[in-house]
Amino acid sequence: MSSRFLLLRVLIAFQNDSHASPLLRFTQHVIDGHFKENKVFLGLVETLVVAKERDLRGVGLQNFKYPPDYREWIELVRTISPRLHRNMSLHFKVETQRSIKNNISHRPRFPLGIKDATFAYAEKYCVDYQYPRSLPFCLGVDDTKLFSALQPIFDGPSKSWYLMGTPGEQQILIPDIATLDSIKMQKHEMATKIRLWVLQIPIAGIPPLALAILPISSKIKAPALLVHHEKLFRGLISRGFRLISNASDG
Hints:
With 250 residues, the chain is of the alpha+beta class. It is 43% helix and 18% strand. The chain has helices spanning 2-14, 22-32, 39-56, 68-80, 82-88, 97-105, 116-128, 180-185, 222-238, and strands spanning 136-145, 151-155, 160-164, 172-174, 193-200, 209-216, 242-248. It has a four-stranded mixed sheet with strand order 6-5-1-7. A three-stranded antiparallel sheet has the order 2-3-4. Strand 3 and strand 4 (172-174) form a beta hairpin. The longest helix is centred in the first third of the chain and has 18 residues, at 39-56. The protein starts with a helix and ends with a strand.
């Protein structure tokens, strides 16, 4: 208790002293709420403090909890530059690459085709850039060639494995690992392209949003593609999006 009152007296004494220790001034700023918007930075400080306290108590770092904003930022750093993430781990307490990959594997994957989540991404896009849906948007679609292959993918929410690489929204469920080879040996039509839809706020400096993807084969015809495009188009318009442009190649 006495140590807390001592700290309080020190803070009061240094409150208006421009020559005080930066650490004391930082503490005063935190108390005054001047850093309340710097959630990533405060998360970094909190993580270092909690890790050091555990170390001094001789307690391990199992089940270490990271502040959400700091954790999201570290995942972004790791995605952009694994090398930078490794270098940061030498100086700060950051989540390991293995832990990040495990967390990502349990999240919903980007959906195939046009789903409810597709429109949720579009709505969040507007929220992130504070852009009303009633203002103009541009919609674009194009195909990208693939190296055809079958690949097992784990779906976290359903806790199931699927074999990816066939055309369409529905992929092949893998009941158990013992049947994987036999499923691969069966004859499957392979996806040779990915159809990508993007939504764009027509303002310089704002990146487009990858809105939806669909694996397709080289045999697919225009009427079948139109079904998906029309579903996306109607879904956006019904949710108040004002589409003024619809661009496609071919």
